[in-house]
Design a protein that fits this description.
alpha+beta, 3 helices, 18% strand, globular
Amino acid sequence: TSESFVEPNGIITVEQAEMLSDNWTKFRKPVVDSAAQKQGREQDDRSTFWNIDDIQNYIRYAKKSSDSLGYTMTGMRVYLGVYGEDADKNKKNLTTMFIVPTGHKTISKASTLNFSFQSNDTLPVPPLNK
C-alpha cells in the first residue's frame, strides 16, 4: 500500500539550498572559522546530524511532554548555540544546533520556565541537541 502524504510548506529546490549554503560560505565562514582558530581549531562546525529515529522519537516526546505541561505543540525551532569553555576537547567553544518545540498554552496548569532563547511560542520542554 502506498502511504499518502502532503508536501510540507517551505520546500526549496536543491539549487536554492546550494545557493544558501554558498552564501553562508561566502559571508559567514571566514568569521566563524576565525573564531574557531582562536580556540585552536582549523574550522568550526557548520552542520549537525540527527538520525530519523531520534527526530521521530523527539517529536513524540515533545508532543507528550507539551500535553502534560498544558501546551499544544505546533512546531519546532532550530537554534544555533556554542558549547562553552567547560565542554570536552572535541566540542569546546564550537557551534551546535538544538531543536526546541513551539506552540501555545492550552490550560492554566502550564509551567512558566523562562529560557533566555525563549520567544512567545517556545515551550518549556527539554530541547534536542545531541
